[in-house]
Every structure is written in C-alpha cells, then in structure tokens.
Amino acid sequence: SVVSWFGIYMYREVFFDTNWRSLYVVTTVLSLVFSLAQLLLIFHDTGAIPSLLFVAVDNAAINFLTYLRFMPSLIVAVAVTPEGLECCCYAALTTLMNAVSLEGCC
Fold first, then answer.
1. Residues 19-42: pLDDT tens digits?
2. Which of 4, 11, 50, 104 is the most exposed place for a label (fewest CB within 10 A)?
3. What is the pTM of this model?
C-alpha cells in the first residue's frame, strides 16, 4: 500500500541514522495510542470526524508505524544473511510479519 511505501521512504530519508531502540520505543508507544483511539470509535466519540474517515486514518497510521518499526529489524537480518540469500530473508520476514498481523486481527 501507499502508506507502507511511505513508511519505508521515511525510514530511509529521515530515520536511518536514528537510534534503533528509541525508534522502536517511540513507534510502539504511538501504535499503542492509535490502537487505543479505536475505543473512541466504539464509544461513538470521534467528534466531527466521520467514522469511516476516522478508521481509515487510524489504520493508515498504524500501518505506517508498523513498517517504520520493521525496517531496522530487516536491515539487521539482511546484514547477517549470506550473500545471494537476501531476497529469501526478506520474503521470510515479511511472511512472518503478515502472519503475525493476521493472527492479531482474529
């Protein structure tokens, strides 16, 4: 999705030299805040924002933060992967990330 690519782009252009621990902590806290924002939707307290727009922005923000948090892990994993197997490492990590996100939805 566009938001995922934007997260990858922002990591490369803005957050690449940032401390990975602080990036992970900040993105985790922000993900928590956006996840808790869904309670506003449950209690119909989104203010003047239509519910559909609220859900779309909330989902996009969580998706952006997920990819921003995923990039440092991916860089470390690919760095220790033998030459020529980087694509397999990326595919495996992406598959695991997608499987975990599907499990979290259920």
1. 888 988 998 899 899 888 888 888
2. 104
3. 0.77
The C-alpha angle with vertex 25 and arms to 96 and 17, in degrees rounded to 5, equals: 90
Three-class secondary structure assignment of the chain: CHHHHHHHHHHHHHHCCCCHHHHHHHHHHHHHHHHHCHHHHHCCCCCCCCHHHHHHHHHHHHHHHHHHHHHHHHHHHHHCCCCCCHHHHHHHHHHHHHHHHHHHHC
Q: What residues contact residue 74 under an 8 Å CB cut-off, 6+ apart?
A: 90, 93
Q: How many CB atoms lie within 10 A of CB 96?
A: 10
- Of the chain, the end-to-end C-alpha distance in Å amounts to 21
Whole-angstrom Cα distance, residue 3 to residue 64? Answer: 6
pLDDT at 106 over 60: no
